[in-house]
Amino acid sequence: MDDGAAIARGYDAAVVVRFLFFALPVLLALVAGSHFAIAALGWGPPSGLPARTLFSGWLLEATGLTALFLLIQARGLPRFVAGLGAAWTAWIFRGPVLLVTIAGASRVPSATWWRLSLVWFVLYTLCGLALAALADDEPREDPPPPVC
Question: Which helix (H) or strand (E) holds 85?
Fold first, then answer.
């Protein structure tokens, strides 16, 4: 895609690449740090997953949050509203929906999972604020076209 098409959609390709260059490592650090903190505090079940699988999950999580943030921000909302909106929308699926699925399918007591759900809420809120802090605050000249 050429730069003209990216600008017509409300984004400058160079700005997006620069944003991703900073946002993905910051989110990876936050997600990995929370994982290690949860394990150190004994708040969650032991993972038992290989390091490559854990890192891939964290990268997928960071990429999904970043993409959701960019989609919400493209609607012209203030960056902190977009950051919190992306974070809390993603948390709905990582927190309560995942909790109901795991507790219902495995018949495991849900007390541990509720604690993790609240930790994930704090983590995703921090990730949303980090994305908002890293986002460019320059107003666009032309708003993006409406989505039909």
Answer: helix 79-92
